[in-house]
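If your schedule permits, I should be very grateful for your opinion on a structural question. The matter concerns a single protein, recorded as an amino acid sequence and a row of backbone structure tokens. Could you please explain, in whatever detail you think fit, how the structure tokens follow from the sequence? I set the record out below, with my sincere thanks for your time.

——
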Amino acid sequence: MSLLAFGLNHRRAPISVPERAALDETSLSQIIEAATASPDISEHPVVATCNRTEIYAEVTAFHGAVADLTAALTQATDITQDDLKAHPDLHYGDAAVAHVFNVAAGLDSMAVGESQIPGQLRDALGRGQSEGHVGTNLNALVQQALRTGKRVHSETAIDEVSRSLVGEGLDAAEEHVGALAGAHVLVVGAGAMSALAATSAIRRGVAELTVVNRTHERGVSLAERPGARARPAHELAQALADADVVISCTGSTGLAITLPDVADARVARGGLPQAFIDLALPHDIAHEVADLSEVTRLGLAELGDRLGPGGSVPEVEEARTIVGDAVTKHSGQRAASIAGPTVRALRSAAQQVVERELARLGQRTPGMSESDRAEVDRAVHRIVEKLLHAPTVRAKELASDGRFGEYEDALHQLFDLHAEGGAL
């Protein structure tokens, strides 16, 4: 059994590809069902967010699991096998363990150090546990990764140097419309990213903040927290006309803001500059909006380009050190857990042989002194320990790399091992 992390690399793929890979509830359920049906996959939480489509799976066969997950993703979404081959996010064994830890710490995000991913991982883990397709192995992995991510944020200053997509979007908007202190910001949507956008805008000291959401009650709830106001969805046109900056992240599968919507708003505004920040996947705001006069539109691709890879700043390096140490520790524990039963069986079998042979020696040499017998006993045990050292270390190495199966079978065949110890 080994860990496989499989999905689409959103950071390297053209924005049109991850948009086609975005999962709604139906497609997410289809992928979970397909993974559950695979004979090569046991546990498998699915992380589906606006910036990530990944499956973490305990697998018994690498190629069979990849084939099944590829089929699941291509059947449930509009992406093709060529898309996955061109922009894969594929990790196996220790590399997969490291990937999960990096994700939890925000080191694999478009915005390095993003604070939203721990909650998204917890949601995926919780769903997997409630639906019965996450067990003890992946629960331990994700929980430890989340604890490590929490350490990264509490023990380093990564939050100060790693701006979120929202923060970068507000920076870009300010460059276009002027100081946010005098701006009117409209947030479309009421999910977690929208809440972050609303809070961030208030902290920037915006003059006004409006929230529009399809379910008005949720919009009202969000607007109450930062001291903004909520407008019902049918007032979107007027809200667009009033806004200097529009931030949208609705989770809708269609456009939330069309070109005619913005064109009408532009007439009502008399041509004043306007910035549109699209944080959704699939995108909420029509791409053609960027072609209008005095309008800028930034989606995930443009924000990712502005953020860059995070660089080698000291705070990020500190975070990587914490994650690296945690990965090494967890990988060792995981390898010991996987190889443990066979190693214990091998050592138990060796101990039984030693005890039988020492007993036989005692019967054949009744005149041997106690000190000589003790020295023989120590010598035999030292020899056995030296002989078992290499296969024990190799067993843990192969277990860590996900290649323990054949070696385990060989040990059982060579030494006639039973499940938890002993040989015939």
The longest helix spans residues 314-364. Residues 5 and 91 are 5 Å apart (CA to CA). The chain has 17 helices and ten strands. Residues 419-424 have pLDDT under 50 and may be disordered.
